[in-house]
Structures are given as C-alpha cells and as structure tokens.
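Protocol step 6 of 9: fold each sequence in the batch and record its structure tokens directly after the sequence line. For illustration, a two-sequence batch is reproduced in full.

Sequence one:
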Amino acid sequence: MRLPPARGSITEALFDLLRGPAGTGPPDEVVATAAAGLDDDDAQLALFACYELHYQGFDEVDDRWEWDPALLGFRAVLERRFERSLAAAVPRPDSLDPAGLRAALTALTCPEEEPLLSLFLQREASLNNFREFVMHRSIYHLKEADPHTWAIPRLSGGPKAALVEIQSDEYGGGRRERMHSELFRATLRGLGLDDAYGAYLNRVPGVTLAISNAMSLFGLHRRWRAALLGHLAAIEMTSSLPNRRYAAGLRRLGAGPVTVRFYDEHVQADAVHEQIAANDMCGAFATAFPACTGDIVYGAACALELERRWAEHVMSCWQRGTGSLRAQPVPA
C-alpha cells in the first residue's frame, strides 16, 4: 500500500515527513493544530496512517518510523483529541457488578429500531450501492481480527483462551483460504472491485476511518484492553443478523456463492462467537478485574456509536441520491 493523497495541512505535512528518512519529527505547528474529530477527514487519515505503521505499513515509508519518538509524540496528540471526541459522543459508564455485565452488553446491542442500512442492502440496494458498501468495509475487513489480536499478550487464563478461540476462527483455523480477510477478498473480486490491501483508502471518508482508528487505539494501549474486549464483544453480538441480510441482498442481485461466502460464514461463526465473547472473555475478565467493567461497556458503546454514525452517513448520502465515498482523486 502506498500513502494516499493528503486531505489537509496535517496529512500533507505528515506524509511529506514519512517519505523522508526517519529521525525528524513533525513541525511544531502541525502538532499544535492537530485535531481528531470523529468525522474529520484530515485528522482521521493522519491517525490511521500513524497506526498503519504497526500493521502492513506503506511501500515508500521507512519501517523505522514505526517507533520514532517524535512521530509517536505527534500520534499521542491526535490520540488525546480522538479520545476526547469519543468521550463527548459516548458517556463513560461507571463500573458495575461483574454479574450484571452480560445484561449491560445485551441492553446495548439490542437496538429499539431495526438498522436501516442492513435492511436497505437486503431489500433495495443496487449493485453500485453494494460496491460502495464493501469499499467502505474493506478498510477493516482486509485486516480482520488484527486490531483485536493485540489483546492476546495482555490477557491470561480463561479470557485469553476465549479470545484465541475467536481469533483462530477469524484466521481460518490456520488455513489461508478460510481466513475471513481472504473470504472478503473473494467478495471484492466477485463485485468487480480491487482486492488489494488498502486499495480504497483514498476513497473512504473520516467517519469510516474512525471505526478502524478506535480499534487500533484500544488495541495498541494496554490501559484500554478492557475496552478492546468490549469492542469485540459488541461486534460479535450484533453481527449475525446484518450479515444474513447482506447475504440475502447479494443473492437478490445475482451474486454467486463465492461472493456471498464471507457473509454466510459470519452468520454462523458470530452466533457462536457472541457467547464466547460475552461470557468466557468479557465475563471472566470482569470477574478477575471488577474495576474494569465500565471500560468493557465503554468499548462496546464506542463500537456501536461509530458504526451508527457511519451507517447514518451512508444512508443519508444514498437517500439524497449521492455517493457515500470521496471523489476519485485526479492523478497528478
């Protein structure tokens, strides 16, 4: 993956820096003006790029930037402001009795209203709508499970075993062709799209990048490990029904079994993962660390709020008859 086009003063300065030799930090004025609103294109892309150095990286960026002290300081500024934006959008709950954790997670993940986006994709979406949808989703699904895997060395005992069980399924039980990221590549190809890692990074808006950035924030900081567990639990507890609808929508549009398999797999796998995540992982962790129960619920609430904002953006664009992606940059 190559660095995408800059989206403002922050990414312009950051990307110019990353294309050079490691060892010189971002200009002070860039650090001072950095913001990280939940839908800010420039700030979310800058934070995403900083995090990506811990994943696959960028072709033209020296790997030594990953642990460059000055760059980490710049990332910390973005993170602090991102955390404040999350806290403003999602109230931090108090700790609760571990015995009530499952009920709290269930209450969060059972919406009073049907999610409009999954219903639309099932019943009405065009092929172009579906292509847009998977382009957005490619930002996470082509690295599926990776952000949550950061928690494994930070756990022990039952919660660690439970997370490994979930992640083993995400990675195909050791078989490449069954890895969820590979199944999603097949979906992209079946819809006539580019299956390369990061192929659509330059097209997705900040509200999409914020979803991945929250996972990386929680995953890369041990202090957020409980929030990361709650984040994963929320994903697993809200996955089966939407994925069933996505699969039905693709079949309605004539997609074949290879294209649909990613969604079919999640209908089955996540029904099992929901129980493991809520009980064996989060429940056991809460019993061992009662003071962290509030963070577990907070992580789940952040996942759901960012997903809600993203879905609202996509649906509002489609209802207006416009695309939900950024315009294709004109080649230099």
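Sequence two, same batch, same settings:
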Amino acid sequence: MTQARHVLVTETDLERLQRLIELCSDGRTAELVEMLEQELALAEVKSSQDIPSDVVTMNSTVVFEDEESGVLRRVTLCYPRDARSDEGRISVIAPIGSALLGLSVGQSIEWPVPGGRTKRLRVVAVPYQPEASGHFHL
C-alpha cells in the first residue's frame, strides 16, 4: 500500500489525530481511519517548532501532482469537520489526505483511491504550513 519513506508529524497533530481515530474507528469511515492510523504508526514525531517548513502538517496548504496525469492540485489538509472539497479543503481521513500527511516536498507515494485504483502523488510545494508561520494552535 505505502512505500518506505520518511514521514514526519508534529506532536500536536499526533495527539489530535489519535483522538480523532478513537472517535471514528468504528463508524462508516473505519477503513479510512485505519489507513491513517497505519501512516501515523510509521511517522517520526517532532515538536511543532522543529518540523521542517516543507512538510505537510495539519492545516497546511499543499500542491501535489498526480504523476500519471501530470495534473497539479492545490488543497488544504484539514480535520473532517472542516472538509469542503469544493473549496479545496481535504479531510485527513480521505485517502489522499492521509497519503499527503507527513510528506515533504519532492516525496512521492502510491496510494489506493476509491474504485480499487492506485494513484501516485508527488508533493510539489507547501505554500502554507501553520508551524512555519508561527501558528502553532490551528
């Protein structure tokens, strides 16, 4: 499902996401929550002050490329309650959301998407990251 890669997550994001996993683990999104949980199990945890500015954290805006089609997409990674796909706000529980979490610019990942397909995504830029901007409590 995932490739060996270096995934980083902040302590704050890890705490909040673990609470989210507890709340959603037996609902209709249980399979998606399990994928997120597996990603977090692989992650290296850093303080918010020590996370590199090119890493996708919660509430970051990220530009990624679908390597098959070459299409670029700009999204903001958010919690499920804030997700609005028409505004480019993608939930961390969505397959692409959990795939992007913790990746840095230049990294790629193959990730299953609905319909039994797999997408290969590459992080192109992180134009906004809360931690890099000093916004540690978003």
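Proceed to step 7 once all outputs are recorded. Observation for sequence two: The beta strands are 8-10, 44-46, 61-66, 72-78, 89-91, 108-113, 117-128.
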